[in-house]
Amino acid sequence: MADPSFFDESREQSRIKSRIVAKYFWAWAIVIISAAKGRENRIAYMDLFAGPGRYSDGTPSTPVIVLKQAIEDADLRKMLVTVFNDKDYTNANSLRETINAIPGIETLKYKPEVENEEVGERIVQRFQQMKLIPTLLFVDPWGYKGLSLGLINSVLQNWGCDCVFFFNYNRINPGLNNDAVREHMNDLFGEHRADAIREKLSGLRPDEREDLIIEELSRALKELGATYVLPFTFKNEQGTRTTHHLIFATKNFKGYEIMKEIMARESSEHEQEVPSFEYSPASKKFPLLFALSRPLDDLEGSLLVDFAGQKLAMEVVYTRHSVGKPYVKTNYKKGSRAPRSCWKYSRNSTR
Fold it and tell me: For 341, how many CA atoms within 13 A lie in the half-sphere containing its CB?
């Protein structure tokens, strides 16, 4: 069950999470609308754990932000289908009232749908039997119940569909070795992979446990066809422990590139202009503790090794090399130390 105080105030981490999703929705919509015109003529945004629409302090949550964006755009007003769900009746009813009160909501061609259903196998089966229009799926459960590989795959298998989901590491990490929630962990990772993770976790340090769990989750998503997986990490107040991740999954490099730039800007740390892809409140309190690495120097060395003797356009190098690494496009321009469209790499030269 969700913590009843969760929506009492808009926490900084919740605001960042909403900003990331809303910014990606806008960028994704601009790209996908042109492809959907004359084809589906509709695109969709789905939030299956939508909440009441506003925090108690009045701050709008993600559904309201997305709808306001749609109202301001002529194409989105005509093409956007929105589906929101929350199993809590009070939250669902509050969300309906909040949506109905948004100025201009009546200008949307497709009235927002608000459902009141528990997310589980029934929803997965429904999606599996449908051919979905291009959809951005946001899955933000308080814990992990309802989040499964089957749910993510039921959406990602369709053209133009991407997924962003909340991964509650704070609860999933101990849950992997808890027989009481074994079934939920198996749904999340796949039974065989979950068993393999359990065997590997024994004796690992906390940071090694986290690396293993996120790596295995990424592998599971990629096996489903999500070629590009991008996690964004949230730390506790002291910056000593991960609380949760926001995970993005897509089949398209363009989507990966867009989300990477968004997450980079929301990162609380940038060393040599290389983003950390995490938000840590402690990085603002103790900045000197987070200023010791030299990631751009590492990039230069890596390029010399990986592309030795090759003459390649910067765009090619960036596309091939950036996946799974913390670097964004501007880092490659700086890392080359050369304002040229093509670089030639040797072990004795940076260009």
Answer: 0
Instruction: Kindly state the DSSP code that residue 137 receives in the 8-state scheme.
Output: E
The model's pTM is: 0.88
**Phi, psi (deg, nearest 5) at residue 228:** -120, 120
Backbone φ and ψ of 245, nearest 5°: -130, 155
Q: Give the span between the Cα atoms of 53 and 270, in whole angstroms.
A: 32
The residue with greater pLDDT, 35 or 284, is 35
Least confident of 10-14, 158-162, 207-211, 286-290: 286-290
Task: Quote the CA–CA distance of 46 and 137 in Å, as a whole number.
Answer: 5
Report how far residue 132's alpha carbon sits from residue 134's, in angstroms, rounded to the nearest whole number.
6
Amino acid at 57: D
Give the other-Cβ count within 10 Å of 303's Cβ.
Answer: 20
Q: What is the percentage of the chain residues whose pLDDT exceeds 70?
A: 89
Contact 235, 241 (CB under 8 A): yes
Closest CA to 59 of 101, 18, 92: 18
172: closest CA among 198, 152, 138?
198
CA gap 319, 316 in Å, rounded: 5
Read off the pLDDT band of 344 (50, 70, 90). Answer: low
Condensed to tens digits (0 to 9), the pLDDT of residues 183-209 reads 999 999 999 999 999 999 999 999 999
Structure tokens at 312: 């390649």
Q: Please give the helix or strand (H or E) that residue 44 lies within, else none.
A: strand 43-47
Per-residue burial over 58-68, b if 16 or more Cβ lie within 10 Å, else e, is ebbbbbbbbbe
Average model confidence (pLDDT) across the chain? 88
What are the helix (H) ranges across the chain? 12-36, 62-71, 74-79, 89-100, 121-128, 149-156, 169-175, 182-189, 191-201, 206-223, 253-266, 282-285, 295-306, 314-321, 329-336
**Measured distance CA(210)–CA(218) in Å, rounded:** 12
